[in-house]
Design goal:
With 320 residues, this protein is an alpha/beta fold. It has 15 helices and 5 strands. It folds into 3 domains: 125 residues, P-loop containing nucleotide triphosphate hydrolases (Rossmann fold, 3-Layer(aba) Sandwich); 60 residues, Helicase, Ruva Protein, domain 3, CATH 1.10.8; 120 residues, Up-down Bundle (Zinc Finger, Delta Prime, domain 3). It is globular and about 70 Å long.
């Protein structure tokens, strides 16, 4: 089924107690996972990415809930769970309606779950990237929940600034909440630092792809970004790529929890993995040497930091 069908079931109170959520929109998968599992006094067990353990998950759903509370199991992963294990967890929910199970799959294999559970009570839902009007409605609803007074034109403008990214637009609402007035497009221009307008990660990717980056760099500097911070951000980004490169060469597949220390979104992991393998170890060494020396020069007194930055970035591209 699709989002609008799930919404009808929620509205009519005819939802199941076990769900498989997947598709192109990580934001909607996250949003509905939270919506379906936020239950007062529930006993909740959550697995994120490589933390999943079948025996622990099965034990959680099979045990008697304490004090009559409900048992909730959440599995978030970009790797497919073994079908037999998934069926077993679903069966525990079919036998005990006090259980709730949400399998949030962030991987790319969407076909596997389209019709995999037709003979079960499972609600298998595919989430597509929201269209413009859908994104505006979602942000509008979140604004109401957060009690942010913002008109529809400002919401549309906020999404445009963040290139349609609902998660980033929604995060901005927390900042806007402090203003005791209706937020307008003018307020958005004054208060929001837009992804579509200037983005440090996009600048870095253009540099590493050997594309023309000068206009992006100009915008960043015009908006007050610090030259030293740009250099350190690039160094950090390249260090992460090198860590991905080493890990993949040793283990075959990336593990963001071990590489970065936190479970990064699947699309970010895929992007950095592919980019990391484009460069050989000796290139990483030369890039780090160049960036660290340039940062040291910038921190010296009476130097033109902007000129050093531009020269460094041009030299970075010459090394690639």
């Amino acid at each position: 089924m699709y989002k609008h069908e799930l919404d009808k079931h929620i509205e009519n109170k005819t939802i199941s107690n076990n769900f498989v959520l997947f598709g192109e929109s990580a934001f909607l998968i996250d949003m509905y996972t939270k919506r379906l599992t936020t239950i007062q006094d529930a006993s909740t067990l959550s697995f994120y990415y490589d933390e999943y353990n079948f025996n622990s998950a099965k034990a959680h759903l099979s045990q008697a809930s304490l004090f009559g509370d409900r048992n909730v199991l959440i599995i978030k992963t970009e790797k497919k769970i073994d079908k037999k294990q998934l069926d077993t967890l679903i069966e525990f929910c079919e036998k005990n309606h006090d259980n709730i199970f949400v399998y949030a799959y962030y991987g790319d294999d969407h076909k596997s779950y389209l019709k995999a559970f037709e003979k079960k009570t499972t609600m298998s839902v595919r989430f597509f990237q929201p269209k413009e009007f859908e994104a505006q409605n979602i942000v509008s609803k979140i604004a109401q929940e957060k009690q942010v007074n913002i008109n529809k034109y400002a919401i549309s403008h906020l999404l445009q600034i963040h290139a349609g990214d609902i998660a980033l637009a929604s995060n901005e609402l927390d900042k806007l909440k402090i203003y005791d007035k209706e937020i307008t497009t003018k307020d958005i221009d004054n208060l929001v630092f837009g992804l579509a307008e200037i983005n440090l990660d996009e600048l870095i990717k253009k540099i590493l792809d050997k594309k023309d980056f000068k206009e992006d760099l100009k915008k960043l500097l015009e908006h007050g970004e610090d030259e030293v911070r740009i250099i350190t951000a690039i160094t950090t980004y390249i260090t992460q790529l090198y860590m991905f490169n080493i890990y993949i060469r040793i283990n075959g597949i990336p593990n963001p929890l071990e590489i970065l220390g936190y479970p990064a979104p699947p699309q970010i992991v895929k992007e950095k993995s592919e980019l990391s393998l484009k460069f050989k170890p000796d290139i990483y060494y030369k890039l780090h040497e160049l960036l660290l020396n340039s940062e040291l020069k910038m921190k010296s007194s009476h130097v033109d930091t902007e000129a050093i930055l531009l020269s460094t970035l041009i030299r970075v591209q010459s090394l690639l």
